[in-house]
Every structure is written in C-alpha cells, then in structure tokens.
C-alpha cells in the first residue's frame, strides 16, 4: 500500500514538473560535455518545441558552431563575429548585443 502511494506521488511530481517545463530551462541541459547527452536534449527540444521559432535558431547556431554560453553567468549567446580571441556576441534570448568577450570566457 505504501509503495503504491509513493509511486503515485512520484508520478504526479513527474507529470507536474513536465507541465511547467519551459524552453529556457530545458536548454540548460546543453551545458554538458557529453555529446550523447546533448543529442538527447536536442531530440527532446525538437519534440517539445517544434513550433517555437527559437528551436530552429538554436539548432542552426549549434550546427554552424555559433552557439556558446558565458562561463560566468551561464547565459546562452550567439557569435556574431570574431577578431582573434575577441568574440562579439549577442544574447540568445533577447537578441541584445553584448560587450566583446574573450574566447576563454565562453564555452560551446
């Protein structure tokens, strides 16, 4: 009886968590070094957000090698241009131009 009750509670928690998932939270899982894990995240993003225009932008920038995140804040950025080790980026979510970054401050 207790086992069934725990099972129901965990299933409900999982269900409610998935209801309130959002794009911004889900792409956080891309911040892994594992290519297998990234592949799974991309597949989930396509399933959940295929109608969201940000999904296409995200996948295109990933394919082109232009999607990074800032090591200090974790903010996703898009590479606009680079001059040596200086990268000119804009915010992925609000398209705001950011101050130039050193290559070491960013991670793919």
Helices and strands in order, then pairings?
Layout: H1 2-19, H2 23-26, H3 35-49, H4 53-64, E1 67-70, E2 76-83, E3 86-91, E4 101-102, E5 106-107
Antiparallel strand pairs: 1-2, 1-5, 2-3, 3-4
Helix pairs in contact: 3-4
What does the model show?
It is a single chain. With 108 residues, this protein is of the alpha+beta class. The protein has 4 helices and 5 strands; from the N terminus they run H-H-H-H-E-E-E-E-E. A 5-stranded antiparallel β-sheet has the order 4-3-2-1-5. A hairpin with a 5-residue loop joins strand 1 (67-70) and strand 2. Helix 3 (35-49) runs antiparallel to helix 4 (53-64). The chain is globular. Mean pLDDT is 87; it is low at 15-20.
- Distance N to C terminus: 48 Å
Approximate strand percentage: 15-25%
Strand order of the largest sheet: 4-3-2-1-5
Structural class: alpha+beta
The number of distinct β-strands equals 5
Average per-residue pLDDT, rounded, comes to 87
Brief summary of the model shown:
Helix content is 45%, strand content 20%. The termini are far apart.
Record keyword descriptors for this entry.
108 residues; alpha+beta; five-stranded antiparallel beta sheet; 4 helices; 5 strands; globular
